[in-house]
Amino acid sequence: MVGADAATRAVLSRALVELGHVVLLDTAREPAAVAESHRLDLLVWVDTGIKVDHRQRSNCFELELEPAFTDGAKADYTVWKQDLRQRIESARRVVGDSGHQAARAEQVWLLAASTGGPEAVDRFLAAAIPAPGVALLYVQHLTSPHLSPLLRRLAAHASRWHVEIAITGNYLLEGTLSLVSPDHKLRIGRDGRVRVLSAPWPGPYRPSADQVAESLALAYRESAGMIVFSGMGEDGALGSEHIREHGGEIWVQHPDRCIASAMPEAVLAAGEVDYSGDVAALARRFNYRYGTPAPGPRTEVS
Fold this sequence. Notes:
Blueprint: H1 6-18, H2 33-38, E1 42-46, H3 54-57, E2 61-65, H4 72-75, H5 77-91, E3 93-95, E4 101-103, E5 107-113, H6 117-127, E6 134-140, H7 147-157, E7 162-165, E8 176-179, E9 186-188, E10 194-196, H8 209-220, E11 224-228, H9 237-245, E12 249-253, H10 262-270, E13 275-277, H11 279-289
Parallel strand pairs: 1-2, 5-6, 5-11, 6-8, 7-8, 11-12, 12-13
Antiparallel strand pairs: 3-4, 9-10
Helix pairs in contact: 6-7, 6-11, 8-9, 9-10
């Protein structure tokens, strides 16, 4: 929380705590390195002419309040606090590709696949129910001419999800599946913003699940997860280690249920996997994870 006088910040601080937030920073001056060191989720600042460093603001949601806003707390604190809640909710919502508006994702699952992947992912998306704060990022090995047909296919099979291509400037949004292009490397910022680089993907896999997983793990840490579906090769094995090291979960389509089992087998060989099952079981597990219908029996990983 930045700007204004101590009394104004005290009123805001009380309300933010009552709304379930933890106030890590309360200052009349520019947060500078403090914001970076605390890795803020929400930056509330009162416009009193203060210059807030955009480099610090870019990694969190921001809410700018007019100087007179807290006057409403004196008239009716309960109504005023509800207004503050609504402003925070609005600040957390951004517009994505094609005008799609949703909140920035708090958790992101990377779907990684190659040969046999589109069929498996189709079935997963048809059964997986979008959950608040959850986004999907899809890496499918393919060539450029097949990107648009795959996008149309996904849109047809994943009617519950908003489907788009991950492009520079877009955020990973709840209820959205972002398809990674095979043409250029991609990075995910700590604020969930996509940046497509000019360089092509190095190595044999385009796009590379390993590289996307590494970027996602650095950005979302324990809030990143990975599901590896049918595919040839070992892409995803190293990426799963990055996800795991940062506290995220790793699931795989059971090799016996894959058209091509090499990718899930490589991930299983790389280390601990949290769950393995057929596509239907993975979707049930996903739904159960976020409070929708209970999953079937767990498939133990040997």
